[in-house]
Amino acid sequence: KLLAIFLKSNTCRTFGSGAVQPFKDSAFYVRSNCPFTLTHFTHNRVECDITTRRGNSGLLVQVEIIINKVRTVLQNGSILVEDKSVSFPYDPTYQHIFQYGIYTKLRSTLLPLSVTWHSVAGGIDTLKVELEQELSTDMTGLCGKYNVTGAMSSISSSGLH
């Protein structure tokens, strides 16, 4: 039971329905095709920024993962690193992208972070951000560990439901 609680508090998920389960706190829905910051933080002077955009169906149609200024984009079933299409296993110095069962996984070697997703026709129906350790940094965005209430206030005041 304790292990499940630990993993849950270090995992943020979003689904094609629009549901977002942040690192901490209750799940909520985001029904918009505007880009949203899923999470943003800096750890050991390495910056991480993950943004998502949903299509009208609710599926994620674009995910942008920037770690240490290296930009990886998931879009239309393709993986682009620095605007170049890559296939897996992709294993440069700072990040590894590989097949993980029915999922695809990106694991950073600079941050205690991995991003796992499931692609379907029309987009991505599941995206999971996992932290391998507790971070002592402020995190913002929809998954934000310390700013979930603030993120929800911003969403509500913008009229997005």
Q: What can be said about this structure in brief?
A:
11% of the residues lie in helices and 47% in strands. It is built from 2 helices and 13 strands; from the N terminus they run αβββββββββββββα.
CATH class: Alpha Beta
Low-confidence stretches: 1-8, 146-161
Sketch the major β-sheet.
7 strands, antiparallel
Order of SSEs = HEEEEEEEEEEEEEH
The assigned CATH architecture is 3-Layer(aba) Sandwich
| Average residue pLDDT | 84
The helix fraction, in percent, is 10-25%
Number of domains: 1
Description:
This is VWFD domain-containing protein. Residues 10-161 form the VWFD domain. InterPro entries: VWF_type-D. With 161 residues, the chain is mainly beta. It has one domain: Protein Transport Mog1p, Chain A. It contains two helices and 13 strands. It has helices at residues 2-9, 148-157; strands spanning 11-15, 19-21, 28-29, 36-43, 46-54, 60-67, 70-75, 78-81, 84-85, 95-100, 103-108, 113-120, 123-131. The strands form two sheets. A seven-stranded antiparallel sheet has the order 3-2-1-13-12-11-10. It has a six-stranded antiparallel sheet with strand order 4-5-6-7-8-9, with no helix packed on it. The longest helix is centred in the C-terminal third of the chain and has 10 residues, at 148-157. It is globular and about 35 Å long. It starts with a helix and ends with a helix. Residues 1-8 and 146-161 have low confidence and may be disordered.
